[in-house]
Write a structure and sequence with these properties.
The chain is 38% helix and 20% strand. It is of the alpha/beta class. Strands 5-6-7-4-8-9-3-10 form an 8-stranded mixed beta sheet, with helices on both faces. It is elongated.
């Protein structure tokens, strides 16, 4: 086997390549990717720096590092381009609960602030959504220093700041409360539990502060979570993309550990894939066995075990409109539908809020939904939504309308523009909201059709909706807004078994795009009827 002249890299690479320990496909790809980086003529391995890093950690921390831990520390600390730049400056630790993500972050914080690392003013900023989580790694560092006669002389520490005296490098923690972090000069930013991040506001603030200090780095620590369509799912997709392309030049090092398939959830081989530290932590393996037994008795505990212990979220789909995996499958390419027949949908619940519009097509046993959302800017100031709307705005999915009220002419203009490209037979909307747009739509010659809402309409459409999602015959294209809208919907079932689509969280979630789609789907039968061609001279109608 080829040696990279660094046992801290070689040991884990050999374990994965030989199959001595079960590893998931993402870990196998990761090792292939790192090997490509190591074998490139554009890079070199600084074994002295790696050895310094590992030796420092094992001297002062209360454990001996396992092979995978040494591998991670070696990748971020000692693989460089020939010009001296770091190869892997962003590390994702998406590993199951108990792996020791915070311990790795604490190891890194202590080493990178020390004179072993050798860069002055190399500050460490630890970021989380709440103070308890933000202080986890900080407190770990604080206690490690207090337990060492040598470190306690080298560091100056309080309950809010730790400073290595010689390098003037500081360790601080931050929560999401403050809106600005002016004056930051981090060497490394550690984002903890990113599965709780609803948008990118915190990441933007701290990432933008990097670049003032040499060899800037970012760590992302997390298990999987239950918040779909948010930051964690973007990172999972990024990890898969980087690994599938073996794109080591991206600088992104995804340590993405999970079971490969659901059928592995009740096997210890699967557990080790999700948590490669299990062979080295017998007490943790005992905990897994206990949690597994509990999960067999409770549906909620099974979902928790799969999500947190195995990084394989399993949703309770009893009352969700669709599983997240099925929602993701709506991201299929929309073909050229120019000249095709369609029906429109409109959700105009409040002129001071969100207005969603769209067109529904049926072709080759699939339904295609082309959507757009108008958002009154004042509503974004008054409410905190679980979505960063700047991203879909840049993608052309959203228009932010200045002021505090929507001009219905903007909505009408969208349909008029679409009618130049597609054949719109009718536009469906809730009969109770019709008056808000009727005058403008009539003036522009747009055909409004009233549809019902609630149990009567939704119960009739529910079987079709279920089948479309289950068979992956519903296509939104790459529309993150529609994925968000859909994931915010639950199915309310009355005592008679009738179904209605409702909003999970009225304060922080929106469903307008999904409701516009449901309105359009109410006219689905019209897509099977041909448009009559009137031969005016003969006064006949042909089909």
């Amino acid at each position: 086997m080829y040696s990279y002249n660094c046992r801290h890299l070689d040991d884990w690479i050999e374990i994965v390549d030989s199959g001595k320990q079960p590893t998931n496909k993402e870990m196998k790809l990761l090792v292939q990717m790192v090997k490509l980086a190591l074998e490139s003529k554009d890079t070199f391995v600084d074994t002295r720096k790696i050895n310094d890093c590992i030796e420092f950690i094992e001297r002062y921390r209360p454990y001996t590092l396992a092979p995978i831990q040494r591998f991670i520390h070696a990748c971020y600390s000692g693989i460089f381009y020939n010009n001296g730049d770091i190869v892997f400056d962003e590390t994702l630790l998406l590993c199951a609960r108990g792996f020791g993500k915070n311990s790795i972050a604490s190891d890194a914080a202590l080493y990178l602030t020390s004179n072993r690392h050798g860069i002055s003013n190399y500050n460490v900023d630890i970021v989380a959504n709440n103070e308890t989580q933000a202080k986890t790694s900080f407190t770990d560092c604080h206690e490690t220093i207090g337990d060492s006669n040598q470190l306690i002389k080298a560091y100056r520490r309080t309950l809010s700041e730790i400073e290595f005296i010689n390098t003037r490098s500081k360790i601080k923690y931050h929560t999401s409360n403050a809106r600005t972090k002016d004056g930051l000069r981090p060497g490394i930013v550690i984002f903890d539990e990113i599965h709780e991040y609803e948008d990118y506001s915190q990441l933007k603030v701290f990432r933008s502060a990097l670049g003032k200090v040499k060899h800037g780095r970012i760590f992302y620590l997390t298990t999987d979570g239950n918040l779909r369509g948010a930051v964690i799912d973007d990172f999972k997709e990024l990890a898969k993309e980087v690994l599938s392309n073996l794109d080591w030049r991206s600088g992104f090092l995804p340590i993405y550990c999970k079971i490969d398939k659901f059928e592995e959830w009740d096997t210890e081989v699967g557990w080790i894939k999700a948590n490669p530290m299990l062979p080295f932590l017998p007490e943790l393996m005992k905990r897994y066995r206990k949690d597994y037994k509990t999960s067999l008795k409770s549906k909620d505990m099974k979902i928790e075990f799969l999500t947190k212990r195995l990084n394989h979220p399993l949703e309770d789909t009893t009352y969700s409109v669709a599983s997240w995996d099925d929602i993701i499958q709506t991201n299929q390419e929309i073909p050229d539908l120019t000249g095709e027949v369609c029906v429109g949908g409109l959700d105009y619940a409040d002129v001071r809020d969100f207005i969603a519009v769209g067109l529904l097509f049926k072709k080759n046993n699939k339904r295609y939904w082309i959507h757009h959302t108008f958002i009154v800017s004042e509503s974004l100031r008054l409410q905190q939504f679980k979505m960063d709307f700047e991203i879909p705005r840049s993608e052309g999915l959203v228009t932010i309308v200045p002021g505090n009220i929507m001009d219905p002419q903007l909505v009408s203009n969208w349909f008029v523009d679409m009618s130049a490209k597609y054949k719109i037979k009718a536009i469906a909307m809730d009969r109770f909201r019709k008056n808000a747009v009727k005058e403008v739509f009539d003036k522009d010659g747009l055909p409004i059709e009233e549809v019902g809402s609630g149990y009567v309409t939704h119960n009739k459409l529910a079987p079709l909706v279920d089948m479309m999602f289950a068979n992956h015959n519903l296509v939104f294209g790459n529309d993150r807004m529609m994925r968000w809208y859909t994931n915010n919907v639950y199915v309310d079932v009355d005592p008679k078994g009738n179904k209605s689509y409702k909003k999970i969280d009225p304060e922080k979630r929106k469903t307008d795009g999904f409701m516009a789609f449901i309105h359009a789907l109410s006219l689905d039968e019209q897509l099977d009827k041909p448009i009559p061609k009137i031969r005016r001279g003969l006064k006949t109608v042909s089909y």
